[in-house]
Specification:
By secondary structure, the chain is mainly beta. The chain has 2 helices and 7 strands. Strand 5 and strand 6 form a beta hairpin.
Length: about 150
C-alpha cells in the first residue's frame, strides 16, 4: 500500500508552535493549494485548503522561518484520527509531514526531514544559471537507441 502526499501551497496564517507534555515541538497549519483547473473559471482560480501537522525539527523550522503567505512544500502521508467533541465524534483527516521545504524565501531554502531526526542548520540558497546546466550536459555523449532496444515499444 502507498500513502504518499506531495503539496506546494501558501500558508494561510502564521505558525503557532506548541510543545507536548514530553517537550516535542508540533504545529498545525493549513496550506492553500491552487487548482489547475476549475469548473467555474469565471470566478478565477480556486484553491483547496489542506490541514497539515508537523513535528520536531519541521515544526521548529516552520515556526522560525515561515509566516502567513510563505510558499511551503510538504511531503508526507494522509492520517486520520477521531475524538469525542461536544456534539459527538469528530473525524479529522490531515497530512502528517515527513519533509517540509520553505520555497522562495529570502532567508533560506532548506528541507527538514523528521523521519531520521537530523538536526537542521540554515544555509543560503545556491544559485544557478541556465548556462551551468548547458555546460554540464554539452560534454555528455548522446545515446543511440532504436525502437528495437525498447521493451515497451
Amino acid at each position: 500500500m502507498i500513502n504518499k502526499v506531495v503539496l506546494v501551497g501558501r500558508l494561510t496564517k502564521d505558525i503557532d508552535l506548541r510543545k507536548t507534555s514530553s517537550n516535542l515541538s508540533t504545529c498545525t497549519f493549513t496550506l492553500a493549494c491552487n487548482r489547475r483547473y476549475s469548473s467555474n473559471q469565471q470566478n478565477g482560480p480556486t484553491a483547496d485548503f489542506i490541514n497539515c501537522v508537523a513535528w520536531r525539527q519541521s515544526a521548529d523550522y516552520l515556526a522560525q522561518y515561515a509566516s502567513k503567505g510563505s510558499i511551503v512544500g510538504v511531503e508526507g502521508r494522509i492520517t486520520t484520527r477521531n475524538y469525542e467533541g461536544q456534539n459527538g465524534k469528530v473525524y479529522v483527516t490531515e497530512v502528517t509531514c515527513d519533509n517540509v521545504t520553505l520555497i522562495g524565501s529570502n532567508r533560506s531554502n532548506n528541507t527538514v526531514n523528521t523521519s531520521n531526526n537530523q538536526t537542521f542548520t540554515p544555509s543560503s540558497e545556491p544559485t544557478y544559471s541556465e548556462n551551468d546546466f548547458d555546460e554540464e550536459f554539452s560534454n555528455t555523449p548522446s545515446l543511440d537507441i532504436s525502437s528495437d532496444d525498447l521493451p515497451f515499444y
